[in-house]
Amino acid sequence: MTITLQNDRLIRALLRQPVDKTPIWIMRQAGRYLPEYRALRKQAGDFLTLCKTPDLAAEITLQPLARFPLDAAIIFSDILTIPDAMGLGLHFVENEGPKFHRPIKTARDVAALSPPDPETALRYVMDAITTTRKALAGSVPLIGFSGSPWTVATYMVEGGSSKNFSKVKGLRYQSPEVMHQLLDTLAQSVQLYLNAQIAAGAQAVMIFDTWGGILTPQDYRDFSLAYMQKIVSGLTRQYNGQPIPVTLFTKNGGQHLAAMAETGCDALGVDWTVNLSDARARVQDKVALQGNMDPCLLYASPEDITRAAQQIMDSYGPGPGHVFNLGHGIHPDVPPEHVAALVEAVHAYACD
After folding, report:
1. I want to staple 24 with a disulfide (CB 3.0 to 4.6 A). Which of 122, 159, 298, 346 is the partner?
2. Which sequence positions are flagged as catalytic?
3. Which residues contact 152 (CB under 8 A, 6 or more apart)?
4. 65 is a domain residue
């Protein structure tokens, strides 16, 4: 199978094929730690303007590639684009994060929701992907993404970020059938959204389940994993003759890795609370693994970053199927030169 990319390490690693070097990209690699991003955001005025202006989103997506020899770009966007397209009134409050003017409060609110048409309501994301693919000119693959149904639902019901998730868990325990209805609508929405991203040019896709780890083991399977599996089963896995790898990532989801590997996905993201050697044993090499440096290690010296990166790759061990990444998003005050040291260390490591 021929992959028409100048650098196809990411795709090969996600498909557990041999690579010459371990590929690396970084969650939130296009973001606030880069001074060029901060300058563009100041010029645009607010975060949503950046997301909804395709040329600006494409420019931001490309910014880290101009600095570092990363093995993939990930489209600059947000996991809450779907509920915004549903009319919930997404906005961002300084130092507080995302908020919704019209959060989900009742069964009637849930019943009124329907999957948005990604070709119209989310056209700006597709245009940003198409623009970015053209600019990349086949240099590295472009990753598309979405939030998981459970994670997106937490923001919709809580009205924004939360510390104890009492509203969304309250809905789950008081009206589980309503919770399932909401998650089913979101699963349909995510499936449509990711397939549209693939048609627009995304060469791999990832589902971010940031808050699946707050659930009990049984609730994780019933209210998070089941809906991600439903999405995976309906995704476009080949486009224009090329494979489209799918990665699932649940933060604090180490105990669920074996179950996640049975969804039909190609790869799993792993956070820093699990050794890659243990993760690999749990999934029995059925899927590739992505991760898993603690983002705070990027505050360390370049020498310590190099040493930590080598330990992580040693933990994964020989054989294909590892994509180096952080265990979650990069922090906004990390020095860019420390990111450069990490990328250099990963690429200098000898792959078996």
Report:
1. 346
2. 28, 32, 41, 78, 155
3. 79, 80, 82, 83, 146, 186, 190
4. yes
The reply to whether 69 falls in a domain is yes
> Looking at this protein, which amino acid is placed at residue 26?
I
pLDDT tens digits for range 150-165: 999 999 999 989 989 9
pLDDT in tens, 3-25: 579 999 999 999 999 999 999 99
3-state secondary structure the chain: CCCCCCCCHHHHHHCCCCCCCCCECCCCCCCCCCHHHHHHHHHHCCHHHHHHCHHHHHHHHHHHHHHCCCCCEECCCCCCHHHHHCCCCEEEECCCEEEECCCCCCHHHHHCCCCCCCCCCCHHHHHHHHHHHHHHCCCCCEEEEEECHHHHHHHHHHCECCCCCHHHHHHHHHCHHHHHHHHHHHHHHHHHHHHHHHHHCCCEEEEEECCHHHCCHHHHHHHHHHHHHHHHHCCCCEECCEECCEEEEECCCHHHHHHHCCCCCCEEECCCCCCHHHHHHHHCCCCEEECCECHHHHHCCHHHHHHHHHHHHHHHCCCCCEEECECCCCCCCCCHHHHHHHHHHHHHCCCC
Q: How confident is the model at residue 97 (pLDDT cuts 50, 70, 90)?
A: confident
| pTM tops 0.85, yes or no | yes
Which pLDDT band holds residue 1 (cuts at 50, 70, 90)?
very low
Task: With a cut of 90, say whether residue 34 has pLDDT above it.
Answer: yes
Distance CA 320, CA 310 (A): 16
Q: What is the CATH number of the domain that holds 119?
A: 3.20.20.210
Looking at residues 257-269, what average pLDDT do you find?
98
Residue 249: partners with Cβ closer than 8 Å, 6 or more residues away: 206, 207, 208, 209, 268, 269, 290
User: Comparing C-alpha atoms, which of 130, 131, 26 is closest to residue 69?
Assistant: 26
| Number of domains into which the chain is organized | 1
- Mean pLDDT (the chain, rounded): 96
State which residues form the domain around 24.
Answer: 9-348
Mean pLDDT of 228-252: 97
Instruction: Establish if 3 belongs to a structural domain.
Output: no
